[in-house]
Amino acid sequence: MLLFVPLSFATPWSTTLADVDPVLRRKIDALIVALTAQGFTPTVSNTWRAPEVQGLLQLGGRATKAGPGESCHNHVDAAGAPASRAVDLWSRPMDLPLVLGASERLAEEAPFLRALGVEAHRLGLRWGGDWHGHPSAWNAWSLGWDPAHVELGRCGGG
Which domains are assigned to the chain? Predict the structure, then answer.
């Protein structure tokens, strides 16, 4: 079955930090510097995404809490331009083994994600690795169900 969802935004998905809220952007820049100093190569996989994309992720079981327009990834500024209040970071670009949850690939990623959590907390960000209570491939590494996700944590109104 082919699913067609008309998108109200020209670019439904962003990987650029230009689409991030300025307050979060400063914290992400500091986060990247700190992780790089530890020998990691942080890679942005997602910043802003259209509410319709959020709905598809929720429908597919990839975003269990936030529906369309409820995610920090869906935030827009007063002019309606993307201003994500969440960023997803990995130690290298996402690849098929990571998406499929291959245990070897997850094990490679776990040290970076733990360091991401430490630095996110130090900067006053919410970290998806703290979110437990949902089945996840990350359970084997004692990581919450969205450990690549960091956010400001005040996402309403947009």
Answer: 17-151 (3.30.1380.10)
Long-range contacts of 59-65 (CB under 8 A, 24+ apart): 64/134, 64/145, 65/131
CA distances from 99 to 5, 62, 96 (A): 22, 11, 5
Question: Mind giving me the DSSP string for 7-40?
Answer: -SSS-SB---GGGB-HHHHHHHHHHHHHHHHTT-
Backbone region of residue 142 per phi and psi (left: phi > 0; alpha: psi in -120 to 50; beta: other values)? left
Q: Structure pTM? A: 0.87
Listed residue (119, 131, 129, 125) closest to 151, CA to CA: 125
Beta bridge partners of 90: 43
Calculate what percentage of the chain has a pLDDT beyond 70: 87
